[in-house]
Amino acid sequence: MKFKVQLVPEEEGGFSVFVPGLPGCMSQGETEEEALANIEEVLPAFLEVWNERHAKALPNLREIQIVA
Question: What are the distances in angstroms from CA 9 to CA 25, 32, 52?
């Protein structure tokens, strides 16, 4: 399964990373690489808890391209 992430540089240093399609799924790191590695570690645990609490499938996520 693939997920899009949003990587945000923080003013005080480091990076936050969010999975927009999964509310509350986030992590951080000192570098971009560390933040991305951390979200890869967080994601399986997040999905397990999501399934336990919601007992339903994940939101129907789609990837589209918009040409402007």
Answer: 17, 8, 32
Domain count, the chain: 1
Tokens of 50: 């999501």
Going by C-beta distance under 8 Å and a sequence separation of 6 or more, which residues neighbour residue 58?
21, 22, 47, 50
Residue ranges making up the domain that contains 28: 6-54
What is this structure's pTM? 0.74
Question: Can you give the C-alpha Rg of the chain in angstroms?
Answer: 14
pLDDT by 10-residue block (mean), the chain, 68 residues: 90 94 92 95 89 69 56
